[in-house]
Amino acid sequence: DGSALVENSGVAHVQFFGADAPYDASIPITKALDKFGDVLVAYQMNGKPIPRDHGGPVRIVVPGHVSARSVKWLERIAVSKNESGSSWQSGYAYKGTPPNIKSFDGVDLSKYKSVQELPVQSLICTPKAGSSIDAEEDEIEVKGWAWAGGGRNIYRVDLSIDGGKTWCQADLKEGSDQPYNRAWAWTLWEAAVCIPPELRKAGTELELIVRAVDSSYNHQPEHPDLVWNLRGILNNSWHRVKLFVKAEDA
């Protein structure tokens, strides 16, 4: 019984060691033992042996966590009271330090937790940044994806065409029916976003924005400076795309 192991031994982490030493990583043992956590020791992908470039012949897959925990070319698994001591886990590579830290010199990184689950995020795929639209168009088709760490589902995707002054909601498509708190894959979304008449003037610059909300009602921050850290990781601020209304002689 895995729960007895945790309670009686003090074991708190599962460590994974790859053939590309010194790379190794770990996850909380509660994630590894969770029957709904879907952690895999994988040797096949799409019914075929995992290619070497994808971490074969055997690799770990830890859905819902930062991909650095899904160790490739797996050689060994160990349980431990401590998390991995590798620089990719205990070093500064995956530590979300506070904004007042401007240099890692003299910083005790053990004070800060390693990244496991990632925050909610979303991205506009269509239209591409810098695209032009006709002044006669009163709406544009917008498509993209949203995702949240820890298996959290996407509950809502908001879109704005005027830099965040007004908003509308996208329709959630493929991936929106994933089991509760087991949403490991992207949720695709799309919307027909109306363009107000005052913005349909030749030469006008439009700012298309997307933001997502997950099943814990976590929201994306408006600006990167709200989540700034020295490494620049965990930036899940609103995704913005600049569009242009075609000039009359274009």
Summarize the model shown.
This is Sulfite oxidase. This protein is mainly β.
Description of the molecule:
The chain has 250 residues and is mainly beta. The protein folds into 2 domains: 2-111, Oxidoreductase, molybdopterin-binding domain (Sulfite Oxidase, Chain A, domain 2); 121-245, Immunoglobulin-like, CATH 2.60.40.650. It contains 2 helices and 16 strands. The chain has helices at 2-9, 29-33, and strands at 13-18, 24-28, 40-42, 44-45, 48-49, 59-61, 74-80, 121-126, 132-133, 139-147, 154-160, 168-169, 171-172, 187-194, 205-214, 239-245. Strands 9-16-15-11-12 form a 5-stranded mixed β-sheet, with no helix packed on it. A 4-stranded antiparallel β-sheet has the order 8-10-14-13, with no helix packed on it. The longest helix has 8 residues, at 2-9. The termini are far apart. 27% of the residues are buried.
